[in-house]
Design brief:
Number of helices: 6
Radius of gyration: 33 Å
Largest sheet: 13 strands, antiparallel
Low-confidence stretches: 19-27
Distance between the termini: 78 Å
CATH topology of the largest domain: Porin
Strand content: 35-45%
Number of domains: 2
CATH architecture of the largest domain: Beta Barrel
CATH class of the largest domain: Mainly Beta
Length: 358
């Protein structure tokens, strides 16, 4: 009995869905016929009832393109009847429906084109997301060592696990100029290697290598200049960035050598070094990018070089970490960390329509 009830319920549900789908399809067909009827009325000069005829399908039934065509027809009616205010109001509705509508100079009519060109449309605000990778580089501004600096030759290289992700907000005050705000979370790291004479044992050498991993929250602000060429838009950018250090951690194994024999190997757990790093650093940015525009959004890719203005290591704290200094015979160099980033993302645009100033 229960199975029979479930079967009846399922059949009823399917019939309702089928009926609703048929109604929607018939409504779409009816509105297509309505639009064609309105066009025929306009061609025959019977224009007075066109706005009222199209009103219902504009509210529900037209596709996006049909709605644009309906608005165009109504605008032409209002222009013919010298109802300029209604024509302008309808034009704004058309632009809201399709912010990137392009004039068909062969078919749109001189009066419609003239009115359309009195208004300008621009993406005043755009919002999107992005992600990418980064390649840090280290500049030693002042070396430090527990041993003779003349034999000290450290090697810094970018390590693995580097990425950033964030949001992009764009404000466009002028046609080719944009202001960008791109807060993001970044993970980056570098590896350090150095071999030098042991501080405590004259016949020994000490080899130190480690990865130092960082987490930053970045707040970059930049200006871009766009070179618009239809859908493809190359651009250049320049700006400033404030980086807030969330965490800095190193794992520092040490090996002691006598000639070629390994005497001891000391490997510790991860050592947090936040207190020995500059909390907020400033960076200068410059880069290149390219956008590919779609009607309401664009995809982009860019490469940006970040030049550090501040030292990453707190000079006053380089001898403060007793574990690094005593156990591993290591002190930090005074360094700046620059970064080269590659990003890609998608951005949705919000458009503004306003009458041009004469």
């Amino acid at each position: 009995m229960k199975k029979l009830y479930k079967l009846k319920y399922l059949i009823t549900l399917l019939l309702i869905c089928s009926f609703m789908n048929s109604n929607i399809h018939l409504q779409a067909q009816d509105c297509t016929v309505t639009l064609q009827t309105a066009r025929n009325m306009y061609t025959e000069g019977d224009i007075e009832g066109i706005p009222e005829l199209l009103k219902g399908c504009i509210k529900s039934g037209f596709t996006k393109e049909e709605k644009v065509q309906a608005y165009k027809l109504i605008i032409q009616v209002y222009l013919f009847e010298d109802k300029l205010q209604q024509a302008e109001e309808t034009l704004l509705k058309l632009k809201k429906t399709n912010p990137v509508y392009e004039i068909d100079y062969a078919n749109d009519g001189a009066e419609f084109i003239s009115l359309f060109n009195e208004y300008e449309t621009k993406a005043f605000l755009s919002v999107g997301i992005f992600g990418g990778t980064n390649f840090p580089s280290i500049q030693i501004t002042e070396p430090f060592s527990t041993n003779n600096l003349k034999s000290y030759n450290p090697n810094y290289q970018g390590a693995s696990g580097r990425f950033q992700a964030g949001v992009k907000v764009i404000y466009q005050p002028y046609n080719n100029i944009e202001l960008h705000f791109e807060p993001n979370f970044m993970k980056t790291s570098f590896s350090y290697t150095s071999t030098f004479d042991d501080f405590f044992e004259a016949n020994n050498q000490t080899s130190i290598s480690f990865d130092e991993a960082f987490s930053f929250i970045n707040f970059p602000v930049s200006v871009t200049y766009n070179y618009t060429h239809k859908n493809i838009v190359p651009y250049i950018k320049a700006g400033l960035n404030l980086s807030y250090l969330v965490s800095a951690t190193i794992q520092l194994p040490k090996k002691d050598y006598l000639n070629t024999s390994v005497l001891t190997a000391v490997t510790g757990t991860d050592i947090p070094v936040n207190n020995y790093r500059t909390k907020i650093t400033k960076n200068v940015l410059f880069g290149l990018g390219i956008k590919y525009k779609f009607p309401l959004f664009f995809l982009y890719a860019e490469a940006v070089q970040s030049i550090a203005m501040d030292n990453l290591v707190l000079k006053s704290e380089i001898y403060s970490n007793t574990e690094l200094y005593g156990k591993y015979q290591y002190v930090d160099d005074f360094i700046k960390m620059h970064n080269f980033t590659i990003n890609g993302g998608v951005v949705y645009s919000f458009y503004q329509h306003k009458k041009k100033e004469h």
